[in-house]
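To assess whether ligand presence alters the predicted conformation, the chain was also submitted together with flavin-adenine dinucleotide. Input:
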Amino acid sequence: MHVKTLILGGGLTGLSTAYHLERLGQTDYLVTEREAAPGGLCASRTVSGFTFDYSGHLLHLHTPYGKKLVKKLLKTNLARVKREAWIYTGAARVPFPFQANLFALPPARRQACVDGLLQAAARPKKEPKNFEEWCLNAFGPGVYEQFMRPYNTKLWGRAPKELTCDWCGPFVPLPAPQEIIKSARKPAKKAYGYNAYFYYPKTGGCGALVNALAERVKNLRLSAPVTRVNLKKKTAVVGGETVSFDRLVNTLPLPEFLRLLEGEAALKKLADKLVHTSVAVYNLAVKGGPGKPFSWIYCPDEQDPFYRVGLQSSFSPYNAPKNTSSFYIELPGDTPHTKAAEKRIWKALVQKGIISKYDEVLFSFWQTLPYAYAVYDKHRSRAVRQALGALAGRGCLCAGRYGRWEYSFMESSLLQGLETAEKLV
Ligand SMILES: Cc1cc2nc3c(=O)[nH]c(=O)nc-3n(C[C@H](O)[C@H](O)[C@H](O)COP(=O)(O)OP(=O)(O)OC[C@H]3O[C@@H](n4cnc5c(N)ncnc54)[C@H](O)[C@@H]3O)c2cc1C
């Protein structure tokens, strides 16, 4: 079989690339997906009338084209939702973001944050060499020790000083020092962060978006894993069959893709420099509602086994039957899926008042997301630049959060699909 463009991966990025290629008049392409259903991490699954995403998947749309495309695909099946996010630390319930809501902390902790910020402001500013230094510059040691260090250590599985700071600009809200100090007296009025409001499908979970896209993609082959790629011969083995191509688009996790290459020893070596985290997700359905309503809660404290708890049923009333609630609970990827781990989760949820020990559990199940976050360590930037440059020189374009090995959102997948299709045409 021969195709002009072979697209590896039928997640949001691969589907968006194919959709835009078709719109630009190119139909000689094939999207090849390992799983029996399209969508990758943006798919959803329905269990006994509950819709679960692969942990929370909310649409943060910040560009006119991103909004227009999602509205075109989902039509009336789209709602705008206000964020209700909190940080539970010790006995305090702090609105998100922590650094703009110090008023909610007990007096001694609040004072330590303010003192730390003043201390940081009095020091001459140095260019931060890592994420720890970036946080200390921006917030001082109080906010760093009470939230930034413990939360990010749990999320990234390593100390903030092992991370660079070239990812945090769009993701970590950065109030001005006077706003942080003011927040020790009263709640911030401003809605900080990229996700103060988000979009979400009314029915079908996040999967409704990828399904709407997949319906418009004619040449999608499912249950067809790519097992080998030869960039010199321009061939790939897809579901056991050899396919030749003129151009290749990769949306698979970059190190996994590099390891599939035949006869590219130098490129394969780069894969070892690319590190990632995994997430274990414990999904839970209960009768009744949570103690207090929320969208999601950050849990930085070391003794809590999870780092974030999301209320899947809060995103849409159609995500769960009436008088029930559904949660996704995110833990480090190496958490064993055992009864003992479940017990620890339950105990912490009850102790935090998120659920009651009298709640009736309807069901629960685990998921593991093997690729969650590309780790921004000191090797990442150089290795990614070298790999993407060398691949482009061999006729292979990479796109998406995992294809480009970056921290980005669904809107970027949609836009990179358009950008890639335009480059190909
Ligand atoms: C925990 C978590 C929460 C997130 N929350 C949000 C959020 O709230 N909002 C947001 O905008 N973004 C969120 N994201 C990011 C979002 O998931 C990604 O941006 C998006 O899914 C990237 O899509 P993709 O198509 O590039 O990758 P993927 O979804 O990973 O798709 C890649 C596809 O390739 C397939 N594949 C892999 N190997 C092979 C092979 N050998 N052969 C063939 N096919 C293969 C996979 O099965 C998959 O379908 C979150 C991510 C994580 C991990």
